[in-house]
């Protein structure tokens, strides 16, 4: 079979490891070989418990996770990671009879599942999609952290004005709400726009949403 990894996969090789968690040593070794042959960085674990020993909130990449394992199952690990607010995308490896469980996992936030035996390219395609999601999640976190840093630089009064602007209040309404003049509101508004590095109201609102961990569509 001809493998055709994209540039996106190659770019992610050292930034986003693929974490393989499966008690089947032969399958783990096969997946490690497949992924490393495309330039990806791979880490493998024989159990959910082994993975949890190295997990941190900063861990990036994605998980390829067997749904059935001795000890803690893949489903139980997924639920544990959810409880710890992990954002790592998860691909479940399932047997033929595990599809109902996999569907349950999808409802709880898993990215997708793939049935054994699977085609190498199908697995690579899913992993690439997962890594793209992980990059998007990390970008959103960076934007949120930067937006929060800018908000932290505002004075208490500027923060009040910011909240009212984002709530859709007009300058006159803000002046009435805060008991200050429209001219003073305009001065505060200009300083808020400058400190938030926003060129428009839309950019300002988007920055606040990022700081709150939200998006315009959520």
From TrEMBL:
SMART domains: HTH_LUXR (SM00421), REC (SM00448)
Residue span, HTH luxR-type domain: 147-212
Domain Response regulatory: 17-131
Cross-referenced CDD domains: LuxR_C_like (cd06170), REC_FixJ (cd17537)
UniProt keyword list: DNA-binding, Phosphoprotein, Transcription, Transcription regulation
SUPFAM superfamilies, per the entry: C-terminal effector domain of the bipartite response regulators (SSF46894), CheY-like (SSF52172)
Coiled-coil parts of chain: none
Sites of 4-aspartylphosphate modification: 66
Domain of life assignment: Bacteria
Pfam family, one: GerE
InterPro entries in the cross-refs: CheY-like_superfamily, Sig_transdc_resp-reg_C-effctor, Sig_transdc_resp-reg_receiver, Tscrpt_reg_LuxR_C, WH-like_DNA-bd_sf
PANTHER family: DNA-BINDING TRANSCRIPTIONAL ACTIVATOR DEVR_DOSR (PTHR44688)
UniProt protein name: Response regulator transcription factor
């Amino acid at each position: 079979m001809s493998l055709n990894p994209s540039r996106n996969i190659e770019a992610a090789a050292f930034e986003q490891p693929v974490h393989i968690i499966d008690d089947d040593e032969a399958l783990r070794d096969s997946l490690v070989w497949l992924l490393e042959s495309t330039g990806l960085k791979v880490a493998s674990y024989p159990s959910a418990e082994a993975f949890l020993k190295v997990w941190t909130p900063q861990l990036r990449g994605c998980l390829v996770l067997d749904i059935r394992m001795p000890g803690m199952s893949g489903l139980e690990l997924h639920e544990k990671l959810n409880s710890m607010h992990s954002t790592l995308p998860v691909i479940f490896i399932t047997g033929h009879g595990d599809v109902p469980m996999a569907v349950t996992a999808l409802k709880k936030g898993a990215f997708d599942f793939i049935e054994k035996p699977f085609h190498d390219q199908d697995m690579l395609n899913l992993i690439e999609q997962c890594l793209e999601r992980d990059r998007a999640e990390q970008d959103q976190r960076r934007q949120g952290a930067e937006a929060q840093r800018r908000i932290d630089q505002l004075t208490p009064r500027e923060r009040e004005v910011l909240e009212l602007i984002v709530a859709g209040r007009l300058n006159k309404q803000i002046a009435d709400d805060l008991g200050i003049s429209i001219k003073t509101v305009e001065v505060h508004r200009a300083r808020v726009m400058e400190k938030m590095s926003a060129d428009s109201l839309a950019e300002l609102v988007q920055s606040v949403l990022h700081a709150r961990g939200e998006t315009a569509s959520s």
